[in-house]
Amino acid sequence: MRSNFIPKAAGVMAILGVASGVATAQTTFNVSATVQNALTITNDQDMNLGTLFAVNASDTAYKFVTLAPAGTWGTPTGASTVTLLTLGGQQAARGSVAVGSTTPLKVTMPGTAYNLVAAGTVASDVAAVLAEQGATSAVEVRLADPGAARFYLGNFRAGSISGGSSSADCGTTNACTITPSFGSASVSFGIGATLITDVAGGTRTTYEAANYTGSFTVTASY
């Protein structure tokens, strides 16, 4: 008679052999990415200095007035010998940047910085203003006539933020850091600057009754 007895060791080996037969499967996943390395900045509104009452400029004195990013004029300051009044109709420039996250972005305006003093007649200060106005980066508001006095814009500032919040640098430098609000598709901002009279002298001592024009560039970056 044949025996069906299986030795214990053999039985263990058989069970282990069945347990080790685990099924596996695999698949392949593709990877894609869209790279964007430029922000979209839009000019929503040009800067309009409105109507200015200006008669004369001087190579020994200057006057200045600041347009806030919200579009309001400050008080004209400087030498009493130079006439400069604001008569209304002004608007600050306004721009916007498309965003998709709350990552802070930086808006950079022209870097021309004027150290202006209330007297407007100190020789060393006038010389410093002349140097800034003579720089290639100077922002002019002028006529085509090279002999007519010009205006200059400097100390650009951004503010009046919508769709985000601004940092302290916006009120002190030409580079403004803005943090978009959660869920915001864009942030918008106002741009103001300080207007200064011409100190070049020579033939450029008289302002004409005409429309003066100029332009400046603003960039946005992460």
Give structural notes.
By secondary structure, the protein is mostly beta strands. It has one domain. It is 10% helix and 30% strand. It is built from 2 helices and 13 strands. Strands 1, 3, 4, 6, 8, 9 and 12 form a 7-stranded antiparallel sheet that branches. Strands 10-11-7-13 form a 4-stranded antiparallel sheet, with no helix packed on it. The protein has a two-stranded antiparallel ribbon with strand order 2-5. The longest helix has 12 residues. It is elongated. The N and C termini lie far apart (89 Å). The model has no long low-confidence stretch (mean pLDDT 91).
List keywords for this structure.
four-stranded antiparallel beta sheet, mainly beta, 222 residues
Per-chain topology:
Blueprint: H1 8-19, E1 41-45, E2 52-54, E3 63-67, E4 77-78, E5 84-86, E6 93-98, E7 105-108, H2 123-133, E8 139-141, E9 151-162, E10 164-166, E11 175-180, E12 186-197, E13 219-221
Antiparallel strand pairs: 1-6, 2-5, 3-4, 3-12, 6-12, 7-11, 7-13, 8-9, 9-12, 10-11
What oligomeric arrangement do these chains adopt?
single chain
N to C succession of SSEs: HEEEEEEEHEEEEEE
* Straight-line N-to-C gap: 89 Å
Query: What characterizes the major β-sheet?
Result: 7 strands, antiparallel
How would you state the average pLDDT, rounded?
91
Number of strands: 13
Global structural class = mainly beta
Concise summary:
This protein is mostly beta strands. 10% of the residues lie in helices and 30% in strands.
